[in-house]
Amino acid sequence: MTENANTVLAQIRRIIDAGGSDADGRLPTERTLCAQLGVGRRELRCALEVLEAEGLIWRRQGKGTFIGQPPDPTGVLAADIVAATDALSVMEARLCIEPTLAALCAERASTDDIGRMRHLAAKIGPHPNSETAEIWDGALHRMIARAAGNQILLTAFSLVDEVRIREDWQRVRDQARSDETTRLYHRQHEAIIDAIEARDPDTARQAMTEHLNRLMRNLEKTLDAKLPDGGAA
């Protein structure tokens, strides 16, 4: 059984961070990566597409895939704390970090950054494929974090993101997703990007806060429904 796309993405980030490339920055071939990670070609290519859209790798026909900008080394620390936290704690952390990142992004994002955000939001769309919705959603939020231009906050975001992609939490988020919520999330993503493009930090902060609060409420409802007595998680 192959890993899900988000897990494959995290594995490749760690390979990049650990220097798992040739001297010229070239990653192993797709065949080698598939064998090394024990994943299928489709899952691998989905992960590589996300990394390319984020600007972390680039590909040249006939030459291979090259590292563009290595991710932050937060995987080991995330592994240490993942067992001591839960999905709602992750959302609380996101609410502390991501609205500020969105506000900074409104001040600092380049035109190219905003174009990449539009591309990633379009990949999610109002009717996303359930197999890829989470991976593209994560890529959009990471792009906003990178474009904010604050390395300390980016490292904090990356740590939370490493914990967030745990497979059992992804299943909860999948259960919390519906046609209605995906349409709403699409509108909220567009509102966040619109505020960033308008260079309006306050509106960007508010739009991200509203988006994350809605995500948190939906997660709480899903977790409550999973408990026999309907109590809080």
UniProtKB/TrEMBL annotation:
SMART domains: FCD, HTH_GNTR. Residues 2-70 form the HTH gntR-type domain. PROSITE patterns: HTH_GNTR. Pfam families: FCD, GntR. InterPro entries: GntR_C (IPR011711), TF_FadR/GntR_C (IPR008920), Tscrpt_reg_HTH_GntR (IPR000524), WH-like_DNA-bd_sf (IPR036388), WH_DNA-bd_sf (IPR036390). SUPFAM superfamilies: GntR ligand-binding domain-like, Winged helix' DNA-binding domain. Keywords: DNA-binding, Transcription, Transcription regulation. This is FadR/GntR family transcriptional regulator. It comes from Acidimangrovimonas pyrenivorans.
